[in-house]
Structure formats: C-alpha cells, structure tokens
Amino acid sequence: MGSPLNSISSKQEIHRILSGAGRAKGVTALVELETPMTAEQIRDKGYITFTNALFEPAAEPAPVYWDSRSTMFCRACSGDSHALTEEFRSWVSTLTPDDDSTLRQFGLTYDRLTKASSAGKIYGYIEAESNPILLREILKKSHVKTIHVIGINKNCELDEDGRTCHSFLWPKSTQLNGLTYRKLDNE
C-alpha cells in the first residue's frame, strides 16, 4: 500500500511526525498491517474497537474499503468491529454479476468484492481524527507495518450551530479511548 500523501514508511519518521502533532491536533491515518488479518485476530492483539477495514489494498483503481457505521446503504450496520466482516459479507451477498458494470464505475468489480468478502482479511484500517499518542502506541505494535498520515488538523468540538470550532487538548493521562497504555502494550 502506498501512502496517500507521501512515501514515508519508516516507523521512526512516522513517530517523529506524530510526536510533533502535540495534544491539540487530531490525526487521520491509515494503519497498515504487517500481514492481512481477520478482525478477530486484530482484536486478539489487544486493540480497541475499530469501525472500518481495508479488505483489499488499491492494487487496482480503488481499494475495497468498508465502514460499518450505519448509513443509508447499510442501516443494519452497527459500528462494531465484532460484526464488521459479517456486515461487509452481508452487503456483498446482495450483489450479483449484473452489478459489475455499476461497480466498475467505482473502480471495483463483482469478482474482487466476492473474493475479498470470502477471504475476510483486513490489510489496514483508518483512524480518523485520533489522538497522536494513541497512534504512536499503535505504531509500536509488531503487527503494524506502518502508519500513513493522511492529515493533521486542529482538534476541535463544534458548538451547537455546527459552525464554530472550539479547540481542546487530548488528555495527558495514560487513558486512550478507555484503555491504558499497558493494555495496548499487550501483544
């Protein structure tokens, strides 16, 4: 998998970039796994819940990517990594070879989707607007090949009108989305 914005793949260089982001930035990044794994294998590594997966990298025009948060296309999707692969497979099962011409407009094919669905292997996933400290801890994991930084933005919460950004800092504590660093370090 190539980096969306650059070709930096050295873990040391990525760590330096993430360290420079500070506590006031949210980082969006593609976490690339060393080898493709099932969602269960990723969870067994002690990682938190993830809601999306790259089921096939972009060797062709488009990657096979699935986001399990509920949308108009998948009202039954739960945003739960335990059901991620099953939800993707369920959606693919609704397709037929007749859908191929439409899928090709998105750089996909019926065959690619059915093969990716059958394999159920995840090549990576996207961390959106995440704590840079969390990403540095993920980067240390032996099953993570690298992290491709897609964007670093001001970390903010929108007010009620949805237009005004109020900056906030990520916590300094060892808590990362409810898990401690010690929990993350368990392999």
Describe the fold and architecture.
It is a single chain. With 187 residues, this protein is of the alpha+beta class. It has one domain. It contains 7 helices and 9 strands. It has helices at 11-21, 39-44, 84-93, 100-104, 110-119, 132-139, 181-185, and strands at 25-37, 52-56, 64-67, 122-130, 144-154, 156-158, 165-167, 175-176, 179-180. The strands form 4 sheets. Strands 4-1-5 form a 3-stranded antiparallel sheet. Helix 1 (11-21) runs antiparallel to helix 6 (132-139) and helix 3 packs antiparallel against helix 5. The longest helix has 11 residues, at 11-21. The two termini are 24 Å apart. Mean pLDDT is 80; it is low at 1-7 and 178-187.
In short:
The protein is 29% helix and 28% strand. It has 187 residues and is α+β, with helices and mostly antiparallel strands. The chain is globular and about 50 Å long.
Which helices and strands occur, and which strands form pairs?
Elements: H1 11-21, E1 25-37, H2 39-44, E2 52-56, E3 64-67, H3 84-93, H4 100-104, H5 110-119, E4 122-130, H6 132-139, E5 144-154, E6 156-158, E7 165-167, E8 175-176, E9 179-180, H7 181-185
Antiparallel strand pairs: 1-4, 1-5, 2-3, 6-7, 8-9
Task: Indicate the low-confidence ranges by residue numbers.
Answer: 1-7, 178-187
Number of helices, counting only DSSP H or I runs of 4 residues or more:
7
Strand tally = 9
Strand content: 25-35%
Strand order of the largest sheet: 4-1-5
The gross shape turns out to be globular
The H/E string reads HEHEEHHHEHEEEEEH
Radius of gyration: 17 Å
Q: Main sheet?
A: 3 strands, antiparallel
